Amino acid sequence: MICVRLASWKWLRDFIAPNTQEGQTLNNLSTLGEFGFISRIASASKQGGGVITGIGDDAAVTQLTPGMQLLTSTDMLLEDVHFRRAWHDPYRLGRKSLAVNLSDIAAMGGIPRWATLSLAIP
User: Fold this and answer.
1) Per residue in 71-99, is it b (16+ CB within 10 Å) or e — as a string?
2) What is the tens place of the pLDDT at every residue in 77-91?
3) H or E stretch covering 94
4) Spacing of C-alpha 5 from chain mean position
5) Half-sphere exposure in the Cβ direction for 28 (13 Å, CA)
6) Burial of 64 (0-12, 13-18, 19+ CB in 10 A)
7) Residue 78 CA, distance from chain mean position
8) Rounded distance, CA 99 to CA 3, Å?
9) pTM for the whole thing?
């Protein structure tokens, strides 16, 4: 859940809920939903040169040089949504996190060569 005072986060209010009045509280993004939020990001973003596939597919595809493309996936796992700490030791959580993203790369026909870590800490 994201809870912010909208008057303090005007840019976020305008981005997520443009018709919300100042001073109202935005309790969470559930009314917009994951795909609604992604749609807002996509419509507000400009796709730069070299981007073949941007927001909305399994992985982003960027043209590095002629004949060489980079596939990038950054799916994150959220505690109590995608895993439970009581059931996953750090090794299993890392393995699951890699599997989710490697699956996206494979779905796009890519061969994994590197890994990155996306980490959100409250």
Assistant:
1) bbbeeebeeeeeeeeeebeeeebeeebee
2) 888 888 898 999 999
3) helix 90-107
4) 23
5) 5
6) exposed
7) 11
8) 31
9) 0.63
